[in-house]
Amino acid sequence: MPQWPSGGMAVVGSMLGPSESSRGVGPSALGVSWEVQEPRAAACGDGGPRVGRCLHISSRRADSSRASLTRVHRQAYARFYPMLLVKQDGSTIHIRYREPRRVLAMPVDLDALSPDERRARFRKREAQLRGKEEKEPELLDNFDLEQYKQFWTKK
């Protein structure tokens, strides 16, 4: 059998239907035909099979069905949540993030801003910081000590 330089075989398949040579029991019963080709011929060009599409498969299954048939191969099974990432230019991307949030906005690069925009942002930030002064909460104290004096005096 032909082998790649790394030692693996070149397997080419067609999803268009069974070929003339592979009738009977096997993958063609599923509508898939497989042929072992030379490494040069496996490129669907010179000498390859004369079908519309070629499918290159290794021994390990790496198609869309793999995720539903096997487990996730990682040591930490982290839960990722779908969310919307807003870039600096306003474009959005759907990503998976470790915390459940709806929208995550990327910070603006201050070095890329004009000096006027930068000053306006710093003024806005300072105004927000000044507004966070701690005020003493006003307690409405209508506690009357005489009402409760009976509980700690001895008779």
From TrEMBL:
Transmembrane segments: none annotated. GO terms for cellular component: mitochondrial large ribosomal subunit. GO terms for biological process: translation. InterPro entries: Ribosomal_mL55, Ribosomal_mL55_sf. GO terms for molecular function: structural constituent of ribosome. It comes from the Eukaryota. This is Mitochondrial ribosomal protein L55. It comes from Cnephaeus nilssonii.
